[in-house]
Amino acid sequence: MASAAFEEIVEDFEFMEDWEDRYRYVIEKGRDMAPMEEALKVPATKVHGCASQVWLHVRPEAGRFHFDGDSDAMIVRGLIALLQALYDGVPLAEVPGIDAGGELARLGLQDNLSSQRSNGLRSMIERIRDEAVRAA
């Protein structure tokens, strides 16, 4: 089961009639996200495979997974916020077992993102899983 924060997003999505409202909601989630420090936007934190610029900085704390992220594209920044809701605070050992694709499918993202955005989202998920395994 997903985190309470992610379940809240799923519930919010259920109340929205069309994808345009959902798209605006995802963008707003990105706007609400704390900014990532510019000093962390380095080649080591850059996610490859994304059409836009994406950075993820993992911060494991007390055996739990946390990360900061940013992008130069507002919708991608919103996708990062969704991933934070899904993964933030999860025990490191549990991160690779989360079915991110299945959880995100509950939002209908696969039907409404371009193939480039979908590929970028998969790259972010792979990076998160790899970083959690390394940190565990």
Report the principal-axis shape: globular
Write down the overall mean pLDDT. 93
What is the correct CATH architecture?
A: Alpha-Beta Complex
| CATH fold descriptor | Sufe protein. Chain: A
- Hey, roughly how much beta strand do the residues contain? 5-15%
Task: Please characterize this protein's 3D structure.
With 136 residues, the chain is mainly alpha-helical. It has one domain: Sufe protein. Chain: A. Helix content is 49%, strand content 7%. It has helices at 4-15, 19-32, 74-87, 100-105, 115-135, and strands spanning 54-58, 67-71. The model has no long low-confidence stretch (mean pLDDT 93).
Give a topology summary.
Blueprint lengths: L3 H12 L3 H14 L21 E5 L8 E5 L2 H14 L12 H6 L9 H21 L1
Antiparallel strand pairs: 1-2
Highlighted features:
136 residues; mainly alpha; Sufe protein. Chain: A; two-stranded antiparallel ribbon; 5 helices; 7% strand; globular
